[in-house]
Amino acid sequence: MPRTSRARAAEPAPPAELPPASLAALEVYLAQVEAVRRRSPLTVRNYRSDLAHYLGHIAVRGIEHDAAGRADVRGYLARLRDDELADASIRRRAATVRGFYRWLDAEGVPLRNRLGDSILRLRYPKVGRRLPHFLSVEDATALVAAPEEDTPNGLRARAILELLWGAGLRVSEITGLDVADLDLTNGQVRVTGKGDKTRICLYGEPARQALHQYLDDGRPRLATGAQTALFLNRSGGRLTARSVQTMVRNAGMQAALQSRVHPHMLRHTFATHLIEGSADLRVVQHLLGHASADTTQIYTAVAHRRKSTLISDALARARSAEATRRGSGLGDGFEPRDAASAV
To answer: pTM for this structure?
Structure first.
């Protein structure tokens, strides 16, 4: 059975300093990832953390980075599993390590691993499929209505929540928006996503009204000068991703939702509600900015699971009602179509 626990045991720290050759290779690689592949600062930071941990692991075992083989990486991944790192995190680290060695190979760096032990042929550990969590329409409605609308911060929070749910944006995309990216007339917003790819996203009337009110009454009271950013903090600067995360979490508590809410959950909610509404998968793929339809496909499984749950609950209620009728001597008037009407 695949391991799905997210608990992480304390991991032995890598050496304070990596070997000079490993550190130099790491810095050149990260510079290429950021400048050429246009990865976000957060992605570059994650690459740095993952690779530094791996390079430290092999360094304390006397293995130079260009001499490591597939068996060494497997040993590293086994250690992570023993430390109870989540399967998805182990797979991510394996992909990061293999990507690093593919870059070394493409740069012409001689790899001195044993014959037949190339990291370039490393296979990723299997990961159990985990369906994303989402909010019901009722809970999402309560969430976006939670902020007070008589303060600049409340107007800003309402606009952000409406846009997260109504357009399915990533938190980094929300904070990266400029005023010029908005088209209130047509209900569109120009978004710069992963890899600096630009797409046009759509939003509905509730989001349009919330954005309009924020631009008229909220943003002018936050602005301290000429600032292009759409969403401003209390100092007049661009709002950060951490601030949005805190804002969404606080709104969830104000709405008394049972589950802890984060910005990406609203993205999942947006996609799931579209699929439940019979939206075309390719359209949802474009709106989410997914490079592959396979990534978007998981939301069909979420929608099907929800429908299955609704049907099961309806059948359970129907059986309970039937048992009550029989127990009270009302006869067998219940028919299967009654279950369908209860869905």
So the answer is: 0.60
